[in-house]
Amino acid sequence: MSLIRRCAVIAALLFAAPLPAATDALAAQLVARIDLSEQRMRVYVNGRRYSSWPVSTARRGYRTPVGTFRPGRMHRRYYSKKYHGSPMPHSVFFYGGYAIHGTNAIRQLGRPASHGCIRLHPQNARELFSLIKRTGKRNARIVITR
């Protein structure tokens, strides 16, 4: 096979086949970092800080899991089955029944107050929900540290 023909075959293979690794590399990366000791979430998009918001996590007697998670199921409107139908707007579940979600208890943001979920101001929860939808769950991470 001539050199020109080999180059043409290689080029055809390269341009005809989809490159999932290349498209994944170009996808936006979103990281939501929650610091339990600071009661703060910092959101990064493609390695750059996007925003920083106060949160409320588990109060005494409860726990918020620590680790790195991927977003799971997401609901614009959700009501807790465990805690008397409490509203959990813009829920992003990340570990079983634990979720990041909006709250009406805005005055408690910045200090532990929940049963383990991560509470945000409703506008911030809506914004995070939208960012994860746009970025894609596969390209998002939730990192919770002490």
Task: Please sum up the structure shown.
The chain has three helices and nine strands, in the order H-H-E-E-E-E-E-E-E-E-H-E. By secondary structure, the protein is an alpha+beta fold.
Structural description of this entry:
- By secondary structure, the protein is of the alpha+beta class.
- It is built from three helices and nine strands, in the order ααββββββββαβ.
- The strands form two sheets. It has a five-stranded mixed β-sheet with strand order 3-2-1-9-4, with helices on one face. A four-stranded mixed β-sheet has the order 5-6-7-8.
- The termini are far apart.
- The relative contact order is 0.23.
- Mean pLDDT is 88; it is low at 9-25.
Q: Give the tally of β-strands.
A: 9
What is the terminal separation in angstroms?
Answer: 62 Å
- What is the count of helical runs? 3
H/E element sequence? HHEEEEEEEEHE
Question: How would you write the strand order of the largest sheet?
Answer: 3-2-1-9-4
Helix content: 10-25%
Specify the biggest β-sheet.
5 strands, mixed
Please state the overall shape, judged from the principal axes of the Cα atoms: globular
What percentage of the residues does DSSP assign to strands (E)? 25-35%
Structural class: alpha+beta
Uncertain residue ranges: 9-25
